[in-house]
């Protein structure tokens, strides 16, 4: 659900902003600014998928993942899959014959990072730009 920065529309950045607000952390409204302005420990993702997985293995539930124009909350690893929760349009998943099938969600959902973005043939895992651990302001 693209919000386009509107104060009242529900999109990925508003979803993350509202979650952290419950714990006394006030994040900027847009994902671009959440990624660069949040007082946090920031890690950029390398190009290689296996190195990306090493970074994910070091994250904790609640850390924030960014890709161009999108933000998600990391939930953890179950089996060999890394999971996130986010507000989004959907994803594509590979069918047994290798074709990609669209899943239009337009809401909040949990998914593995191994699925593909709706607008490309790249997985969410390979689209990640950075991971952020909030280091200031948490009032738990």
Give an overview in words.
The protein has helices at residues 12-21, 31-37, 49-57, 124-127; strands spanning 40-44, 64-67, 70-78, 81-94, 100-112, 128-134. With 140 residues, it is an alpha+beta fold. The protein has one domain: Alpha-Beta Complex (endopeptidase fold (from Nostoc punctiforme)). The protein has a six-stranded antiparallel β-sheet with strand order 1-6-2-3-4-5. A hairpin with a 2-residue loop joins strand 2 and strand 3 (70-78). It starts with 11 loop residues before the first helix and ends in a 6-residue tail after the last strand. Mean pLDDT is 90; it is low at 1-7.
Brief summary of the model shown:
With 140 residues, the chain is an alpha+beta fold. The protein has helices at residues 12-21, 31-37, 49-57, 124-127, and strands at 40-44, 64-67, 70-78, 81-94, 100-112, 128-134.
How is the topology of this model organized?
Layout: H1 12-21, H2 31-37, E1 40-44, H3 49-57, E2 64-67, E3 70-78, E4 81-94, E5 100-112, H4 124-127, E6 128-134
Antiparallel strand pairs: 1-6, 2-3, 2-6, 3-4, 4-5
């Amino acid at each position: 659900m693209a919000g386009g920065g509107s104060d009242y529309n529900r999109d990925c950045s508003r979803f993350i902003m509202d979650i952290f607000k419950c714990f006394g952390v006030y994040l900027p409204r847009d994902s671009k600014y959440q990624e660069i302005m949040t007082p946090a420990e920031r890690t950029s993702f390398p190009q290689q998928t296996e190195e990306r997985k090493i970074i994910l293995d070091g994250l904790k539930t609640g850390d924030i993942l960014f890709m161009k124009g999108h933000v998600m909350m990391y939930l953890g690893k179950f089996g060999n899959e890394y999971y996130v929760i986010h507000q989004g349009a959907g994803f594509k998943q590979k069918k047994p014959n290798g074709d990609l099938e669209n899943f239009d969600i337009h809401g909040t959902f949990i998914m593995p990072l191994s699925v593909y973005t709706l607008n490309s043939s790249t997985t969410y895992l390979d689209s990640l730009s950075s991971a952020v651990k909030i280091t200031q302001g948490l009032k738990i």
